[in-house]
Amino acid sequence: MARPHIEPFVDRDVSFKKLVLPGFPKGMQYKMLSMDSDNGACSMTVAYEAGYKQPPGMSYSEYELFIMSGSINVGSKTYGPGSYFFVPAGVAIEALSSPRGATGLLFYNYGEPSFVESDTDHSRAERSAFTAVNAYDNMQWTSTNFYPATAPGCMVKVLHYDQRTQAFTFLYCMTPNFWQDNISYHDCSEEAYHIWGTSWMMQFGELPTGGYFYRPPYINHGAFGCKLGTLAIGRTDSQLYNHFHFNPWTNIEENRERAASRIQHWKPDLYNWINMKGHNHPVDFEHAHGHANGDAPHHHGDGQVTHAHKKKRKKR
Amino acid sequence: MKLIANKRSRETQAWINRELKEQKARYRKIVQEQDALTPKRDKWIADFLQRIQTRGVHVHYDQMRKVRPEEIPTKPRRKFKVVF
Prior knowledge:
The structure holds two protein chains of two kinds. Chain A is mostly beta strands. Chain A is built from two helices and 25 strands. A seven-stranded antiparallel β-sheet of chain A has the order 2-3-4-12-7-10-14, with no helix packed on it. In chain A, strands 1-22-19-24-16-15 form a six-stranded antiparallel β-sheet, with no helix packed on it. A four-stranded antiparallel β-sheet of chain A has the order 5-11-8-9, with no helix packed on it. In chain A, α1 (about 250-265) crosses α2. By secondary structure, chain B is mostly helical. Chain B has one domain (about 10-70). Helix content of chain B is about 50%, strand content about 10%. Chain B has helices at about 10-35, 40-55; strands at about 55-60, 65. Chain B has a two-stranded antiparallel sheet. In chain B, β1 (about 55-60) and β2 (about 65) form a beta hairpin. The longest helix of chain B is centred in the first third of the chain and has 27 residues, at about 10-35. Classes of the chains: A mainly beta, B mainly alpha.
């Protein structure tokens, strides 16, 4: 299991804890929202205490930081509420400080939190993927641009989009009196945190300010409602497709099977190829071949898709 | 680059273990709270199944269709849960 289904969880119900981990300076507190039991990747609400100072440094895992209140300085620039950073693994950021304190959300995507003091990037870092943007001041709301789409009144600002996996991080809002009468599930995991406001879902009830969920794929959610408006940040780990329906009692297995059946009808040739080809190891010509990297999940027509071969060592 | 391989320290592993233990307790509490919500949820579901027959179910954006009575699903016998 990677991360369990945590829904709903309200971080206002728990206290901040001091973050004491090798490499991290003192003065940072956190509330754990969810953690991946396989690799330590996690999502946290964080508080930088007034006077916090962090030297230039990098993380071994890609991470994202969103500032909710207060401000931080990175190098000579000041970043207030709405500031969002996407920091690839190994990219060193300048000295970070928070003279008056700040709160934010910190997402370590592929490994546990780590901090290594350094004023230069790791040799494998992809500096070009680094992003820093103020989502409140410098981005505008757009419709979700999905098909099928959420109901009118739910809008997004896309903060980060991964071209390979189609995972994305986004701010979303629900207008006052937003409602959507259907049930949805996705093929991806989805997590969200309410920066402000209360929304309602038919399965889980109300999610207030500070409310959070991490939802694995194929779990029903909705109908939806929001009386006074909501501002939230959401993330997925791969492409988000809205599988809408109106049966409140379907389970994960039935939802997954329905999704697979839909792929069979939407992309029949691809579906057949995936199922029929013996040693099935799809290669994207725009990306490095998995075998060249050692091991890539694939199957032999037996459905064991996590199966992998280790890279063979050449005999000398 | 999403992750650069590195050796996890003993302190970090201990921290992860503590957090995972707390996460298990958090999960159990959520399941209990959601089980307690069952009577309210049953009412919400009944209201929903009524609304989609009168006002309609959302199909795409503002497009809705009214669901016919014979299309309304029936609750299966198995235990119903919302947290997996």
